[in-house]
């Protein structure tokens, strides 16, 4: 399994991911330099942990909108963040139709974060993984309900079963992974937000 890419071109703006809106809510365009901040961002102190290996993941591209729409066309409810948390960047996303697999990769101030969406349940996806169950996370206020939580060699994993598929988020700590989960919505809803 390839590690999450940190050397790929980094997008320096928050956006409605599928709408492609640059700098929405930040006052920053894609051509502006990275913003400076007077508050110190948390830094990763632990060694990066490899995400759970689900096999040969899809090719990741910084231009991933078409891949997300292909996944939607293949009837995979494809989750994307509506707006990234402050300090996050999208590395990119990719989709594999056979076996179905939607994947996005991000960098956050605390480390790399991965979103995987696969057919089946989280129990199926994590059956062979070296994970330890943790206390679930209630995201009812964000429209999804309770996510199961897991520890994977020091990394946090959140899982949510969604109409025949499972959404799996992995990152350096529970707070980071939760912030991504709070921002997720189906790709087709993100397209509807363009106007």
CATH C-level name of the domain at 65-192: Alpha Beta
What are the low-pLDDT stretches, counting only 5+ consecutive residues below 50? 1-46
- Radius of gyration of CA atoms, rounded to a whole number: 16 Å
N- to C-terminal separation? 38 Å
Mean pLDDT: 74
Q: What is the fold named in CATH at topology level of the domain at 65-192?
A: Phosphorylase Kinase, domain 1
The largest pleated sheet is described as: 7 strands, antiparallel
Oligomer: single chain
- Shape call: globular
Order of helices and strands: HEEEEHEEEEHEH
Folded structure, characterized:
The relative contact order is 0.20. The longest helix has 10 residues, at 174-183. The termini are far apart. With 195 residues, the chain is α+β, with helices and mostly antiparallel strands. The chain has helices spanning 65-73, 122-126, 174-183, 187-192; strands at residues 79-81, 89-97, 100-108, 111-119, 132-139, 145-152, 155-162, 165-171, 184-186. The protein is built from 4 helices and 9 strands; from the N terminus they run H-E-E-E-E-H-E-E-E-E-H-E-H. The protein has a domain at 65-192: MucB/RseB, C-terminal domain (Phosphorylase Kinase, domain 1, 2-Layer Sandwich). The chain has a 7-stranded antiparallel sheet with strand order 2-3-4-8-7-6-5, covered by helices on one side. A hairpin with a 2-residue loop joins strand 3 and strand 4.
Outline the fold blueprint.
Layout: H1 65-73, E1 79-81, E2 89-97, E3 100-108, E4 111-119, H2 122-126, E5 132-139, E6 145-152, E7 155-162, E8 165-171, H3 174-183, E9 184-186, H4 187-192
Antiparallel strand pairs: 1-9, 2-3, 3-4, 4-8, 5-6, 6-7, 7-8
Keywords: Signal
Signal peptide: 1-21
Protein name: DUF4245 domain-containing protein
């Amino acid at each position: 399994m390839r590690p999450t890419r940190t050397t790929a071109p980094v997008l320096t703006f928050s956006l409605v991911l599928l709408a492609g809106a640059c700098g929405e809510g930040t006052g920053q365009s894609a051509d502006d330099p990275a913003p400076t901040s007077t508050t110190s961002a948390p830094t990763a102190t632990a060694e990066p942990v490899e995400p759970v290996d689900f096999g040969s993941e899809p090719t990741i591209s910084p231009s991933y909108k078409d891949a997300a729409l292909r996944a939607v066309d293949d009837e995979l409810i494809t989750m994307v963040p509506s707006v990234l948390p402050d300090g996050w960047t999208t590395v990119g996303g990719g989709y594999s139709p056979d076996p179905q697999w939607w994947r996005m990769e991000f960098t956050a101030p605390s480390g790399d974060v991965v979103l995987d969406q696969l057919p089946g349940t989280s129990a199926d996806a994590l059956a062979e993984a070296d994970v330890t169950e943790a206390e679930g996370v209630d995201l009812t206020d964000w429209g999804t309900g309770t996510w199961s939580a897991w520890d994977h060699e020091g990394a946090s994993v959140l899982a949510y079963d969604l109409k025949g598929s499972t959404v799996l988020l992995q990152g350096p700590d529970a707070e980071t992974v939760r912030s991504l989960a709070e921002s997720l919505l189906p790709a087709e809803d993100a397209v509807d937000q363009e106007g």
